[in-house]
Structure formats: structure tokens, C-alpha cells
Amino acid sequence: MKTTEKRTLHPTICPYCSLGCGFFLELEEGKAVGIRYMPEHPVNEGSLCPKGNAAPDILNHPDRLKYPLLKTENGWKQLEWEEALSLAAEKLGTARKENGPNSLAFLGSAKCSNEENYLFQKIARLLGTSNVDNCARLCHASTLIGLGKTLGAGAMTNPLADLSNSDCVFVIGSNFAENHPAVARQVLRAKDKGAFVIVADPRLTPTSWLADLTLRLKPGTDVALLNGMMHVIVNEGLLDRNFVREKTEGFPGLEQALQRCCPETASRITGIPPSEIIKAARAYARAGAASIVYSMGITQHISGTDNVTACADLALLCGQVGRKGAGVLPLRGQNNVQGACDMGALAEFFPGYGKVGDAEAAGRLKTLWKTDKLPEKPGLTATEIAEAAGKGKLKALYVMGEDLVNSHADSSRVREALESLDFLVVQDIFMTDTAEYADLVLPAAAWAEKEGSFTSTERRVQWTDRALSPPGEAKPDIEILLLLAEKLGLGLPYRTAGDVLAEISGAVPSYGGMTKERLKKGFGLIWPCPDSSHPGTPVLHVGRFKTPDGKARLIPVEYQSPAEIPDPDYPFLLTTGRVVLHYNAGSMSRRSKALLEKEPGLFVEIHPSDAKAMEIGEGNRLVLETRRGKTEATARLTGKIGPGVLFMPFHFPGTNVLTGDALDREAKIPEFKVSACRIRRE
Ligand SMILES: Nc1nc2c(c(=O)[nH]1)N[C@H]1C(S)=C(S)[C@@H](COP(=O)(O)OP(=O)(O)OC[C@H]3O[C@@H](n4cnc5c(=O)[nH]c(N)nc54)[C@H](O)[C@@H]3O)O[C@H]1N2
Ligand SMILES: Nc1nc2c(c(=O)[nH]1)N[C@H]1C(S)=C(S)[C@@H](COP(=O)(O)OP(=O)(O)OC[C@H]3O[C@@H](n4cnc5c(=O)[nH]c(N)nc54)[C@H](O)[C@@H]3O)O[C@H]1N2
Ligand code: SF4
Ligand SMILES: [Mo]
């Protein structure tokens, strides 16, 4: 802890996105009064984006939840913790006894620490269910599956700073200039050294301004683009034959499948001229070291897993992985989504990605947890909970830090599902639209009000200490969970986050060498860090892949069209995403005056030619309608999207009333990036 005259400086990590930028909170008389930059931090080197700069607003906001609240006929009633947790334990226990453990479901939080998510999934599994998941299901579930089956690990292969060593950066479906701003610095450094940057995105975004080649493909056509590029690479002999022979399996099958997708075919599907597909293929394959950077434009489709698989195939074909400057970089979303997944807050994975259903993985965990019973089948994913609740299969839901009413697809269905539950607990730092449906609301401490570890997108595990006290009677999630476990009779033997981390290091092999003391030194450790003398592993897949036989898999995939495409009734293609000033469903960023003043409400981008044809002017109120529902937004005219396409952020309530719940068959991620929509002036 550093001190200035009156103020104390407390090192911390940004609570918004997955980059894990560091800064100092300025404290005065126990209150957060500002921030101070941390130039020595290896990720952000001092700078922060607008959300990081506004982070203290979260801590000080008058809306913070301060007491446990029970819903009564006369509104919310304040409860003592003792009463609140007894009630939660009793209701969970009753549902379990009357309807079996799988009538319970648990949504973990990518905003909470590793220790909290580990405990959360442990409680669920000790109660007998694997119905535990987190928002990665809406985000990078396709990465976990797609990179898992090709490379053997569903995580970023190289650290962010290594992007500056790439000779070619292929950005596909990522708008990092707005959503992971510190990444832009590394790409600019690569450009300084002469790197060629390709950006494949249906929209022109601030990231596009970094591009030497811009590929404005039709939404949902990435497999065709990637197959078209690979076709060129194979036919022109630009592949890395030695790498393919020595380090991969499956080339003949891929080679054969690629013959069906020449650049002309890819062009018909994507709308990109064949010459540009060829140019991109040559630039990527010929580069000494090339990286693929991708994010939601790739993952949030019914073909999300296929998209990710095709990205991995491209990298493998060209030997562009496992080296300095050569890698596959899925930019993760939330500040601890990587960690929530590593900790097993996932329906189909135990901590450390042992598969639920695999007897050996279960055996190891049973020994560690000293239990003779664990769920044998994968549970319901976050995206299957609504349906199960609607059918009456789910009776009680415990939500720790997720605003599913505004972040899951088809909000009306989510609302109905929440209404049909016998019991809903929501543990959050603010009263969200989801919490409004709860029977019991539990007030949680925010990141700086507790201690624990958080894993960033580059697998960097960092520890933060408590800087200040939570408001009112709010408690750290870890404390709430430990008290609840006691009431449930689960008898978990920890007192602190450090104790939980000690168990994590036994349960998750890549965290084997991590202790609170080691994480606090410097800027954390990058997993895998298997033992106490291991320095961490910034670059994955050097020498061998993380598959059982050490070889990567080349897996062919075929283009399939999105679940819903525009038709005469719903002629527009609506795509949804993000802007720099707000964050996800907005519970945090909409509570910052500085952010809200600059971006105050829901808008929809429309191409000027469509606006003209429909006599829509800048700032007009529009009604948007899909097969799921209707919402209103303010029109913004821009040529940055194509004709026939609409773009909306989901930072304000309303957007997900429109989106559909068609799921990727393997990863169960919804297709947030494509819906058929119609519009009219209000
Ligand atoms: N400012 C800000 N930063 C954030 C967040 C936030 O809400 N606000 N959220 C965090 C989270 S949880 C996440 S997951 C990340 C997400 O970060 P990103 O993935 O960068 O976010 P998105 O805006 O959802 O989508 C990225 C881009 O994909 C493009 N796209 C849409 N459809 C397609 C397609 O079919 N193909 C291709 N190639 N591109 C397509 C969009 O036009 C968009 O520019 O950001 C994190 N950081
Ligand atoms: N249409 C559309 N929908 C999308 C997407 C899209 O691109 N388009 N993207 C999807 C993606 S990638 C994601 S990741 C999801 C995100 O979906 P959510 O995870 O639901 O989004 P957030 O708004 O970040 O919600 C996090 C919640 O955690 C609370 N919180 C913050 N800190 C803490 C804490 O320490 N403890 C507790 N208990 N709670 C805390 C916040 O107040 C907030 O209510 O949205 C998805 N939804
Ligand atoms: S880039 Fe991400 S981690 Fe860094 S300041 Fe912005 S929101 Fe925070
Ligand atoms: Mo995300």
C-alpha cells in the first residue's frame, strides 16, 4: 500500500473486462475518491479505458444493495443475514428433497473471484447437481469446445503483449478498439514494425481503422470466409507441411472438404470479392508469425463452435501457433470469465476441465472433496435453464451476479421462466431487473471490498486485497457462500480466500503452483503453473499440444446459414454487440454519471439508404420487432453498417426482447449476432 499526504493508494484490478488492467484506488477516510494510474502494469502500462476510469463510481453509488431483502406482499422487507441464509438453505433443501437435486440450478458469476466460483460450483455439486454454469455460455462456450477439440485447451494461446511480435494480425469478429482497448496498443506496435492487419467484420468499427485490409462479410458467414482462405492456402501450397505432418492429425479430411469452398463460392456466401479472400489468405499464410484475434463475432452464432474450429484449422494449417507472435487469441469477456470456467462453474466440466461423466475425473475430485457421490451427468447450461423452468422441471435458482433478464436471449421467455420458479435468490451488488423477480436478494461486496484472485484473458491470475468496507451489511460473496454452506450442512473447511485457493491448487492442475503469496508478487502468474517453483507459461502449445497424444486436430467444418435470416415479414438483419462507454447489461456502467452522460440510452444504427427509403431521420424513435417481441430505440444513421443490417448494443434493457434462443448444438451458445427484424417509426 502506498501513501500520499492524505490519501492512501491501494493497488487493484479493473472490475470490467477480461484484460485485467491494474490501477490504484485512491482512498480517503475509507472511501474511494479517485484512481491513480499504474504505469508499471504489464497489460495496460498505466492507461485505462473510460470504464476503468469510472470504476470507483460503482463503489460509491447510492443504489448499492446494503441489506438482505425478502419479497413480501407489501414490497421488500429488510432481513438479518441469519434469517436470510436460513431461508435460502431451507428453500433449496425443500426443493431438493421434494423434486430431486436437478430441480436446483446455480448461475455462477464471471464478475466474482476464482475462490467464489470454485465454492459456488462445489456447493451445487455437493448438493447433487451439475446444473451450474456462468455467462461464458453466452460468450466463449464455443471457444471452450472448439479450441478444446482442436488444440486441446480452450484458452488464449499467447499473451497480449506478444501481439506486437506478429507480422500479420487477422482480426475476425472482434472490436477490441472499443471492447478491449489496451489490445489496440499491441496491434499498433506490430504495425509500427510493419505488420499487415486484416479486420473481418460486417461493420466498420474503430478497430477497422487499424486495418490494411477490411473484409466486410455478411453476418454469420465466417466459416465460408475461413474455408475459402484455407482453400487458397492449400491450393497454392502456402501451408506449413512439416508442421501439419508432425504436429497435427486429420489433414486429408480437411483438404478434401476444402475443395468444396473455392474463393468464388466463399465470395457468393460472404459478399467479399474473391480477390480479397485470396489477398487475406496469402498475407496470413506467408507471414513469419501471424495471430488470429477473435471474439463475439465468431462465437455468438449457431455455428459458433464451427467458426472457432475453422479459426484453429487455419492457424494449424499454416503452423501459426505455439511460437512468439503466432497464436490464436480469443479475447474473453468478463474480468473473471476465464477463471469462472477454470473453476468448473460449467455444466459439463469439473474444476480444471475434467469432463462430468468421466469416471477418472470424478474419482480425483471425490478423493479431494472426501465425498463418495458426485453428479454423473452434465447439467443444464445457462441457456437451457429457461426452458427447464418453463416446463416445471426447475424449482429453485440461485443467481450470483448475472442479469439474465437483460443478458440472455428472448427476455420475455426468461421473465416467464423466473416467474414459474418456486424460489429465486439473486446475489448482486445492485438491484437488477433479474433481482426484481427474486424472492430473496442478497447484497454482495464489490471487487475492491473483498480479496481473491481473478484470471484475465491471457490466463494471468492476479490477486487483489480488500481496499475498503462494503456498504451497509453487504458481504463478500465468499462469506455469503460459506455461511450458506454451513446452513446446508455441507461443512466446508475454509475461513479465507487463501484457504480456498490452497484447495484449488489441488483440484486444478494448471493452478497447482499458485498461492496467495506468489500471486501477490509482481503481477500474478500465467497458467499453466503446475508447481510451486514453476514461473508460469505465457505461450501455450510450444512443442506439443494439450491433447492426450500431443497432436492438434484438423477438423473440417461446413458453412451453415444462421438460424433466422431476413424474409419479407422481417426484412432486416439485426446484429447486437457493444460500445466503448457501456458494459454488458449495464448494471454497473449505467450507474456511472460520466458514462451515462455521453451515451444515455438505447439506439439502433441503420444505413442511410434504408433510412431514406423509410423516411427515417437521425434521432427518430423507432419500434423494432422480431418474432419474439418489440422494443423502442433512437435511430442513428451511419454508413458503418451495410444496407439491410441494423446494429444495437445490449447495454440498455430492451435489446434482448428481440434476440432468439436458437443454440449452437455443441456449445449451447445463442445466436446474438443474427435476428430477422422489422422496423417502423413510432
Ligand atoms: N466497452 C465494452 N467492453 C467490453 C464489454 C462491453 O459490454 N463493453 N463486454 C465484455 C465482454 S463480456 C465481451 S464477451 C467482450 C466482447 O467483445 P467483442 O467481441 O469485441 O464485442 P461485440 O461488439 O459483441 O462483437 C465484436 C464484433 O463482431 C462483429 N460481428 C458481428 N457479427 C459478426 C459475424 O458474423 N462475423 C464477424 N466476423 N464479425 C461479426 C461486430 O460487428 C463487432 O464489431 O467485450 C468485453 N469488453
Ligand atoms: N444481445 C446480446 N446479448 C448478450 C451479448 C451480446 O453480444 N448481445 N453478449 C453476451 C455476453 S458475451 C455476456 S458475457 C453476457 C453477460 O451477461 P451478464 O453476466 O448477465 O452481464 P452483466 O451485466 O455483466 O452482469 C453481471 C452482474 O454481476 C453483478 N456484479 C458485479 N460485481 C459483482 C460481485 O462482486 N458480486 C456479485 N454477486 N455480483 C456482481 C453486476 O451488478 C451485474 O448485475 O451477456 C450476453 N448477452
Ligand atoms: S480495457 Fe478492460 S480492464 Fe482495462 S480499463 Fe478498460 S474495462 Fe478495465
Ligand atoms: Mo462476454
**Count of all domains:** 4
Shape by Cα distribution: globular
- Rounded mean pLDDT is 97
Distance between the termini: 55 Å
For the biggest sheet, the summary is: 7 strands, mixed
Entry keywords:
682 residues, alpha/beta, Phosphorylase Kinase, domain 1, Rossmann fold, Dimethylsulfoxide Reductase, domain 2, 4 domains, six-stranded mixed β-barrel, 25 helices, 27 strands, 32% helix, 18% strand, binds ligand MGD, binds molybdenum atom
In short, what is this structure?
By secondary structure, the chain is α/β, with parallel strands linked by helices. Iron/sulfur cluster binds next to helix 1 and helix 7.
How would you explain this protein's 3D organization?
The mean pLDDT is 97. Helix 3 (81-99) packs across helix 20 and helix 4 packs parallel to helix 20. Helix content is 32%, strand content 18%. It folds into 4 domains: 2-58, Phosphorylase Kinase, domain 1, CATH 3.30.200.210; 69-139 and 338-526, 3-Layer(aba) Sandwich (Rossmann fold); 141-331, Dimethylsulfoxide Reductase, domain 2 (3-Layer(aba) Sandwich); 572-681, Barwin-like endoglucanases, CATH 2.40.40. With 682 residues, the chain is of the alpha/beta class. It has a 7-stranded mixed β-sheet. The chain is globular and about 70 Å long. Bound molecules: ligand MGD (2 copies), iron/sulfur cluster (SF4) and molybdenum atom. Molybdenum atom binds at residues 139, 333-334.
